[in-house]
What does this fold into?
Amino acid sequence: MPVSICCPQLGDAGLRTQLTTAVQAVVKRWRPAFENWKLSLFKSQSGIGWDLAISGPRFRKILTLTGPVEDLPGLVSAYIDAILAQIADPRRPMKC
It folds into this structure.
């Protein structure tokens, strides 16, 4: 269950570690099988928020997240959780 996260504009190493740990826990809960998930997090071109690109098996999506930088681990893991829940049960509406 490899998860790679690229966030070059996030300067705080502790925050990057929290983000990686949170995302890995969510992916492991929903998709324990061997799958490759890649996330890229960049400051939004609009200057407000962050752009999150998610790529997984048969899945690609780009989202814009808004909120303080300290909330990024929670925001990203909540979106990943909602996306994987919706993939697991397509009839379930996505709540984000």
